[in-house]
Amino acid sequence: MKAIELLELNNITKTFNDGTAALKGVDLHVMEGEFVVLLGPSGSGKTTLIRSISGLVRPNDGIIKFKGKTIFDENYSHLKKNLGVVFQDFNLVENLSSLNNVLSGLLFSSNIFLSMFYLFNKNQKLHALEALNKVGLLNKAYSRVSTLSGGQKQRVGIARAIVKRPTLLLADEPVASLDPVISATIMKLLRDLAKELGITVVCSLHQVDLALEFSDRIIGLADGKIVIDAQTKNIDQLKIQKMYRGQTDGLTFGLV
């Protein structure tokens, strides 16, 4: 079966007001069903790339296409209604229940006035409970997020991201604040849910071991450019080591 392209980035550049050139002509193609991990040293452009795709950062130049359709400011809803996002710092409302935090993932598709007061309908609540069940936190549905552990909070964040059954899920350093054992558990959960629900994932990480264990493909960034693009099973770990040491001369582009 021929792979279908879901996401296409052409010549994406981003320079911030302080003169920092975060992205320098990034080209990236992501196929349906892939679990893609972005690796690179601090300041390499991973987070800026994730935020550019999600619309939180506006590139200076370049084209983003989703399902073959070019994304502009006026039609970003085409992507957003199919997009889930998992944040490094969880981005949850601490004094609300897990259930209400998950329901906030439906705000884009709900009546704005009603959603301001968390007046969601029965079906929406059932979808949110189902999402919590999928991440193993149904028993914490009515617990305040402030009472949860870091790993549990990120599970709530994942439930919020999948509640509307997105086509694409972006995860920006989703395990950066978690210990190694919990980090592996969260990454396994993300991978398993992606396969079960047919979600394509683009995830930035700084843990090379997790990238090697859970990804289908690894994109290496250095100084705002893609310097490695390889199927994980074929990855040259020496090239990753060179990338982190800043030795990017000789690193090859394209799939290997």
Structure commentary:
By secondary structure, the chain is α/β, with parallel strands linked by helices. 32% of the residues lie in helices and 24% in strands. A hairpin with a 2-residue loop joins β9 and β10. α6 runs parallel beside α7. The longest helix is centred in the last third of the chain and has 18 residues. The chain is globular and about 55 Å long.
Mean pLDDT: 91
Query: Low-confidence parts lasting 5 or more residues at pLDDT below 50?
Result: none
Summing up helix and strand content along with how strands pair, one would put the structural category as alpha/beta
Contiguous helical run count: 9
List how many beta strands DSSP finds.
Answer: 10
Distance between the termini: 21 Å
* Percentage of β-strand residues: 15-25%
What best-fitting shape do the alpha-carbon axes yield?
globular
Radius of gyration from CA coordinates:
18 Å
How are the SSEs ordered, and which strands pair?
Elements: E1 5-15, E2 21-31, E3 35-39, H1 46-54, E4 61-66, E5 69-70, H2 77-80, E6 83-86, H3 98-103, H4 112-116, H5 122-134, H6 150-162, E7 168-172, H7 180-197, E8 200-204, H8 208-214, E9 217-222, E10 225-231, H9 237-244
Parallel strand pairs: 3-8, 3-9, 6-7, 7-8
Antiparallel strand pairs: 1-2, 1-4, 4-5, 9-10
